[in-house]
Each structure stands twice: as structure tokens, then as C-alpha cells.
Specification:
712 residues; alpha+beta; seven-stranded antiparallel sheet; six-stranded mixed sheet
């Protein structure tokens, strides 16, 4: 993989023959586990400006109509997050000269609080092309990681690494985007205009207001231009140089008319996050009684064998993918598929020696006369993928020039650990990408589209609802990860009788199963909430995923606990999950930081008041500075006396509160009522629905005032 330094550039054609479709990954590591950022893309003309507001892609405008750009969302990595963007360079309009890839933070946060910032590019075959690490970002709230630009008939990439103090709205405005100033003014203290030229004096009372204000123009002081560092000149060839202020072009005024041949501006984008949902109307049933079963598009009662389930599940999924463009595109874009006309097929016979092979399905996408093809191999229930079968499909795909083989099963792939290893002849000019989907991921995407993000029309929403009903039916066999594996019982018994030793391979198997379970719970909870839910991996910088799992397996042998942390967008803290295999108890918890203003008794009363509808057996512990723990008690006991949460010594500093629920965990390895998987899933969902939803920050923290970047 080509490693780049700031200011360098490289021709994509020299790195890959499949560079027409790319996946850009922007990643970072948060030492605290709760730091995050949002990616954005701007399409610029030869003047270094957007042609209109529609050329600005961010969380409120994630997909280009022509398929050239699609924000795919965040994917957890071994040490943090990776936010991925799909580019179809063949679909980028000819008048677009540069494609800027950036990221921004909010609520007064800066990139200096994050570590290991980098951008990677991967081609359509899944082959990593390049990586660029951003060093020493400082306190800036927005960064341009890099840009794709034309040089004649080819595309090149330049490593930029330039910071801005003006946030998302300021960066967009500098490139000619007309941000909704009215909203920015209403959400920014003292009515300051957006564009990065005003100082946000503090945080709003709610997260939504804080995001709107911070993203709409916090940064430098009023009337002070924030200079950006110039991009170093390339060492080999002459490229477009930065302006004296870096790559910040002169903003186009809102009243400027579009140039001839260029599209008119779209509606002014708003930097406050929005959600588009499909309206739901609950209608009274026309059935005489509950025994009447509603007719379904995809019946499941007749499924008798695993083969029937695999065939039906494949056909149902592929047909809905072809009919609902948003759904099909969301599932295939991360695999390098272009945006275009999609057709899907099942039970296709392909020659392979004396015996033809029949993959479960084929996905084919046409774009500008070019075809992208993926073979699909499906498994349901607890059936595992067969390496020799997947290998045969990979060989066929390589010979026929197909781009990918997609495996689909109830298992969840681990970071850096493919479920099936295949060996493709390295001498072949065309390489095949091996990709995996879990049925839990399919369900999550369908949930997000019809419940939170919206689809094109009611018919598409109905199709997705029928698909969800099918996937969730007990007879479909598409229930996601549901077995902790053969090592579960021996490991649990070894912990009970203290015979499990470090280095035992069975402990590593259990740790891997635990990681799969946590990833699936994140998908399930995120689909219900419509928020990002991601596992937090507190690994050392650059740690290998396999090494991290070995360390966790050794820790399991020592203390008998499986632990995980989930970051839920909008939640006041990290949700912790701990399964103690010695005691058979599950603990779900969240830590809330103490406000920086007010009185401790006020904090305690307010916390208890907000938890009025929480379970009476909720444990609350006061966290104090320099000590292992402070006062604690159940919510039932603390409701009449919130003051019992305060330390007896008045000079003891309270740093926060820990809220915990305990329950017995299931013992069996499966997903039955008494199973471990079901008990963990129920515990997380119960804790969030009965505790976390009632919480907010006790008092908004004041963002530290930033020093002016200009002269006094």
C-alpha cells in the first residue's frame, strides 16, 4: 500500500486498474472512547467552488443522485471508527475538477483530542491503494484529509491534511456553499452568522441545539479571519497551488447567479442533523379475531428444510434489493459496486470442469455500459460456509472477470478476520474481492431505511416491511448470530473450577463469539433507535485485532469476565456490559460526568428526579476523586433521600455517577429463552429503554474559549 506524506500526490491508475470505483475510509482513535467526527465531500469546479449547494455531501445529504458520491456511515475497527465514502469516478460530472474529502467535529471539540487520524483508499476489488496519516492536527474543528482531482484524462489523489477552526459550516461556506444563515443565527450565541467568523460562547442546553450552533459557525473570534496552512508544493509536477490562506477560496455570495451551463443552487443546506422518516398510520384491523393471519408477500410456513430456507431467503433478499434502489445500493456500495441499474438472479448455472456450479445468487449492476458482478453464497440457521465451495466461486469469478463473491450467513465477521479464506492466483490480472454480510446487517439496513431515513415511495416501504417480517419470523432461519460455540460450556466450567489456563484456545473462541454478539447487539439497538451504536475498542494505538483478542482471552482466564462498551449517539455516556461467568450475573452500566457548575445536592436531586420511571432496583454509585468509590444505593432507597448520594466529607470532589442494573445471565450457549445470547441482548435493551433514555447531561459543560488565530 502506497504511503503518502502531506502535499504529495499520486496517479490512481498507477496503483490499480480498478480505480474507477473507490472506497475512502477516514479513521481516528478516541483515547476516551467517546470522541467522534463527521465526514463530508465537496465537488468543486475549475474555480475551486461548488456549482451549487447540491455539490455538498454530508450527513443531511449523503447520496448523489448520479451515484458519484455516497456516504456509507461508520464501521467499527479494532481501535476506533472508520467512516467510509463510496466514489464512482466514472459518474463524476466532467465539469467537476476536484473532489474534497473532509471531516468535522462539533460541540467545541477539536481533532487534537483524537489520535491516529488517517485516510485510506481502496479500489473496487477491495485492494488497499494508499494511506495518508494526518500528523499533529491541533485544536482545529475541521480537516481536509485529501482530494481527488483530474489531470487530463486520469484521476489523482493529493494528501492535504489542512485544518480549519470554522467547523463544518465554515468549511462549506468557504467553498461557496450557501448555508442556512437564519438557522445558524438562531442557534449560535448572540445571533452570530455562520461561516466560521464568530465565536461560540458556550454550549446550548440540548445536544441538538449544541450541534446546530457548533456546526453552524463556532470557531474563530468575531471579525477575525482564521488562516489555514498552505499546502506544500508537489515535488515532481506542477499542481494547483493553495491560495495565501491555504485552500480556502473566496466565498461566493448568496446572490451570485449560477454560471452558464451550471446547475442552479439547491435549497440552502442546514448543518443541524435531520431525520427523514416514512409516515406510519396505525389502522384498525378488519379481522374478526386474532386468529386471522394477515396475508404476507413472502410466506414462511411452508419452509421445511435448510435448502428451502436458503433458496427462499436468497430469492426474497435479492428481489427486494433490485426493486428498492436505496436498499440495494446501501448493501452493495461498501463492496465497490457502482450506482446503476441492478438486476439479481438465483440458481444460475456456471461451468466449472465437468460439473457446473450453481451459486445461490448473482448481483449485476450496469453503469455507463460497464458491468459489475458479484456471486452470492447463502447460509441460514446455524449452517456454516464451506471454504471449498467459496473457493470454487472465487475461481469462477476470477476467470469470468467478475468483481466479487459475497457470502451471507448468520455469522458476524470480525475485524481483520474473514470467515472464509480463499486463495486467488496472484498472477491473475483480475482480482476478486471476498465480502461477507450477516443477516443481522441486512435487517439493520432495512430498519434504518423504513423506520428512520425513509425510502422513495410507499410501495418500497411496504416491500421492506414485508422483508423485515420474513427475516424476523422464527421459521426463516435468518436470525443472526445465535450460538456461542462448542467452547462455551468447557470455558464456563473451567472458570467455575479454576482450571482454565491462559493460552487456552477455547478461551479465544469464546472471546471471538462475544465480540460477534456485541457487534450484533449494536446493529439491533441501532436499527431500533435510528442512531449509530458502535462497540468501543480501547486498544493501544496500532494494535492488531488478533493480538487484542488474545489479551482479552488471557484476561477472561484470570477474572472470569467478558466485558464490552457501546457508544450510542446522543447518550450521555458509554454503556458498559459485563458478564461475570463466576457468579452468573450480567451488569449493564453507564457513567455520567458531574456538572461543572451548581451544588452536589442539586445534582443528586435532579438525577433521582430524571430517573422517576427507572427500575427500583437500579444501583447508583457516586464517583469521587482519588477514591475507589463513594456512597451507593438502590434507586428505591434513594428516592426519598437523594442526599444519601453525597460523601460525608464536604471537601470530597464528586466526579460523576455510575448507574447499574444486574440480572442473572443465561447458561446455555444458544439463543433460547435460557440462553446466554438472549439474556445479554435483553439486558442491554432493557437498560437503554428504562435508564439511558431518561438521562441527559446534568448541566451542559462550558466549551473552553478559543484563542484568536489572528492578531489582537
Amino acid at each position: 500500500m502506497h504511503e503518502m506524506v502531506k502535499g504529495s500526490n499520486v496517479a490512481l491508475a498507477t496503483l490499480s486498474e480498478n480505480a474507477g470505483s473507490l472506497i475512502a475510509g477516514l479513521s481516528w482513535v478516541s483515547p476516551t472512547g467517546d470522541g467522534d467526527a463527521d465526514v463530508s465531500v465537496l465537488l468543486l469546479d475549475a474555480n475551486g467552488k461548488v456549482r451549487g449547494n447540491g455539490d455538498f455531501y454530508f450527513y443531511n445529504n449523503p447520496v448523489a443522485a448520479d451515484g458519484s458520491v455516497q456516504l456509507l456511515g461508520k464501521t467499527p475497527t479494532e481501535s476506533g471508527d472508520e467512516d467510509r465514502i463510496s466514489f464512482d469516478l466514472t459518474a463524476v460530472p466532467a465539469v467537476v475538477d476536484r473532489v474534497v474529502v473532509a471531516a468535522s467535529r462539533y460541540e467545541g471539540a477539536g481533532f487534537g483530542e483524537l489520535e491516529d487520524l488517517k485516510v485510506t483508499l481502496t479500489d473496487a476489488g477491495g485492494e488497499p491503494l494508499l494511506v495518508f496519516a494526518v500528523e499533529d492536527p491541533g485544536t482545529v474543528s475541521a480537516i481536509i484529509f485529501g482530494e481527488l482531482y483530474r489531470r487530463g484524462d486520469e484521476w489523482k489523489f493529493r494528501a492535504v491534511g489542512q485544518g480549519y477552526d470554522t467547523g463544518l459550516a465554515g468549511l462549506a461556506t468557504d467553498f461557496g456553499v450557501d448555508i442556512d444563515d437564519d438557522e445558524a443565527a438562531s442557534d449560535t450565541p448572540n445571533g452570530a452568522a455562520s461561516g466560521g467568523q464568530s465565536e461560540s460562547g458556550g454550549q446550548s442546553e440540548s445536544r441538538e441545539q449544541a450541534e446546530s450552533g457548533a456546526r453552524a459557525g463556532s470557531g474563530g473570534q468575531a471579525g477575525t479571519a482564521v488562516p489555514a496552512p498552505a499546502v506544500p508544493a508537489p515535488a515532481v509536477e506542477q499542481e494547483p497551488q493553495a491560495t495565501p490562506g491555504g485552500l480556502m477560496p473566496t466565498p461566493r455570495s448568496p446572490g451570485d447567479a449560477a454560471e452558464p451551463g451550471k446547475p442552479e443552487r439547491t435549497a440552502r443546506p442546514r448543518t443541524a442533523k435531520k431525520k427523514v422518516t416514512v409516515p406510519r398510520v396505525t389502522r384498525k384491523s378488519l379481522a374478526d379475531n386474532d386468529s386471522w393471519k394477515q396475508a404476507r408477500l413472502f410466506p414462511v410456513s411452508a419452509l421445511k428444510s435448510d435448502r428451502d430456507r436458503e433458496m427462499r431467503a436468497t430469492s426474497v433478499l435479492l428481489s427486494v434489493m433490485a426493486q428498492v434502489p436505496e436498499f440495494g445500493r446501501r448493501l452493495t456500495a461498501p463492496f465497490g459496486a457502482p450506482a446503476g441499474r441492478m438486476e439479481t438472479f438465483t440458481e444460475v448455472s456456471l461451468p466449472q470442469g465437468d460439473t457446473p456450479r450453481r451459486p445461490d445468487g448473482i448481483i449485476r449492476v450496469e453503469r455507463a455500459g460497464k458491468l459489475w458482478t458479484a456471486l452470492v453464497e447463502t447460509k441460514t440457521n446455524g449452517n456454516s460456509l464451506k471454504p471449498e465451495q467459496v473457493q470454487a466461486y472465487a475461481d469462477i469469478a476470477a476467470r469470468r472477470g467478475y468483481e466479487a463473491v459475497i457470502t451471507l450467513s448468520n455469522d458476524v465477521a470480525l475485524e481483520g478476520s474473514p470467515l472464509v479464506d480463499v486463495k486467488i492466483d496472484g498472477r491473475r490480472k483480475h482480482k476478486v474481492a471476498l465480502r461477507h454480510l450477516s443477516w443481522a446487517e441486512v435487517t439493520h439496513v432495512a430498519q434504518m431505511l423504513i423506520g428512520h431515513e425513509g425510502v422513495g415511495d410507499k410501495a418500497h416501504a411496504w416491500l421492506l416491511q414485508e422483508l423485515l417480517y420474513y427475516l424476523r419470523h422464527e421459521n426463516s432461519g435468518c436470525h443472526g448470530f445465535q450460538n456461542m460455540g462448542a467452547a462455551w460450556v468447557p470455558v464456563r466450567n473451567g472458570i467455575d473450577d479454576e482450571t482454565l489456563c491462559q493460552g487456552d484456545a477455547r478461551a479465544l473462541e469464546v472471546v471471538e463469539s462475544w465480540e460477534r454478539l456485541v457487534r450484533q447487539i449494536c446493529l439491533s439497538l441501532g436499527g431500533e433507535l435510528g442512531h449509530k451504536v458502535l462497540p468501543v475498542q480501547r486498544a493501544k494505538r496500532g494494535a492488531d485485532p488478533g493480538t487484542r483478542r488474545i489479551r482479552l482471552a488471557d484476561q477472561l482466564c484470570l477474572d472470569g469476565r467478558l466485558q464490552a462498551e457501546l457508544r450510542i449517539e446522543g447518550a450521555p455516556g458509554i454503556l458498559g456490559v459485563s458478564a461475570d461467568l463466576r457468579t452468573g450475573r450480567l451488569r449493564t452500566s453507564v457513567e455520567i460526568p458531574a456538572p461543572e457548575q451548581g451544588y452536589p445536592l442539586t445534582w443528586a436531586k435532579r438525577l433521582v428526579r430524571h430517573l422517576a420511571e427507572a427500575p427500583a432496583d437500579l444501583h447508583i454509585e457516586t464517583l469521587v476523586e482519588g477514591e475507589t468509590g463513594g456512597p451507593r444505593g438502590t434507586l428505591e432507597r434513594l428516592r426519598p433521600e437523594p442526599a444519601d448520594l453525597l460523601p460525608q466529607q464536604n471537601d470530597t470532589r464528586i466526579t460523576g455517577f455510575r448507574l447499574s442494573l444486574f440480572k442473572s445471565m443465561g447458561s446455555s450457549r444458544g439463543n433460547a429463552e435460557s440462553g446466554f445470547i438472549r439474556s445479554v441482548d435483553d439486558a442491554v435493551h432493557r437498560f437503554h429503554s428504562t435508564v439511558v433514555v431518561h438521562l441527559d447531561r446534568l448541566t451542559p459543560r462550558q466549551a473552553p474559549a478559543k484563542e484568536s488565530a489572528g492578531t489582537p
